[in-house]
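agent> fetching stored inputs for the magnesium ion docking request
agent> found them:
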Amino acid sequence: MTIVDSLKNILHVGKKESVLGIDVGTSAIKIVQLHQSSDGPVLDTYGSLALGPQVEEKKIAIGESVPITVSLIKKSLSYLMRESKTTATVFGFSLPFRSSYVKQITVPQMSDESLREVIDIEANKHIPVPLQDVTFEWFPVPELFSDIEENQLTTVGGRDTPLLEKKNTDTRTLVLSVVENTTLNLYKSIASELQMLNPRFEIEIFSALRSTTKETHAPTLIIDIGARTTKFYIVLHSIVFRSFFIDQGGETLTHVIMNSEKIAFQDAELKKREYGLEHPHEELRESMNAIIDNLISEININMQDFESHYHHAIGRVVLTGGGSTLGGLYQKIKENIPVAVEYANPFLYVAHQKNVNDILQKVGPEFSVAIGIAMRMLQK
Ligand SMILES: Nc1ncnc2c1ncn2[C@@H]1O[C@H](COP(=O)(O)OP(=O)(O)OP(=O)(O)O)[C@@H](O)[C@H]1O
Ligand SMILES: [Mg+2]
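agent> prediction call returned; pasting tokens
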């Protein structure tokens, strides 16, 4: 990966209404600038910058995760925005899922107005930290999901599954979305240091689902393999039904190569990108494949658990995040799970020049979150 990878030759500089989606990952910042045309979102420019080489105090390689600080992100983001020639004046940041909490909860049946009065008490029952340490929002889950006939069938991948969600008139279901204030304040400080006016913030789950899922009748499992963590989201019609993460990402495999071959992180990272899961050393290949086997059992266990709880079959799995581009990973996942697997192709939803189709499809998984937050900003 080049340090700055931006699409400078298709800039549409000067669009007043352009918006910038910003995804500060633990290993790299990704940005995407869009503007709205009468036919939908249009790509102005995009770019990514590995954070490791930007850290001055210590030698950190491309692909390695770093501690996120205001000064590091201020410096890196302003450099990336300059290099990518961004012109947007409207900014949206995605917030890391590892500092958040998204859950469906049920509360007694009441109007939105009454709910607003008691939401703190209800939320307090589900948020495992003091309410003054977090900022939270809630959204009602549309009645559609609690009003489905008991014998209604959905056919997914040849499997008929009854949808048993029954209307329960005593309760209503909400999605509770919670962010730690320390994280929110960190991002607010970054925006303020960069003189970004009225930035918006959104947990990365919602950004990823906006740019990777299409409307289907079956739930989708999105798997975002980042540098430090792998996130799992099960969504249907933009409603998050399950979300969790594991402390394992692309970096985990680099560490395995590094420790086994006793080489520096940057060399191990290069080997990982070159060989993928087909590393020439048998023992190392087995260790790397064992990590992916764990990931696959995590996927299968959670799919089965979701399906038996909701009686609704997952229709497809979407792979996203830079770590998902590991050579051989797609094939291995596809062979070991019972539903269709595809790569996220978020640039599909934004107009761009045809001659960059292939590049955008290749880098797409890395940019799902940044595109998703930019799309959100266009809706405002
Ligand atoms: N061609 C490739 N082959 C294998 N891994 C790759 C490749 N390109 C990038 N990666 C891996 O992708 C990861 C970075 O992905 P991404 O930018 O999505 O992470 P991040 O958003 O910074 O991390 P996180 O979401 O955990 O905060 C790194 O671990 C990197 O090694
Ligand atoms: Mg990420």
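agent> quick read of the result: The chain is about 35% helix and 25% strand.
agent> awaiting further instructions
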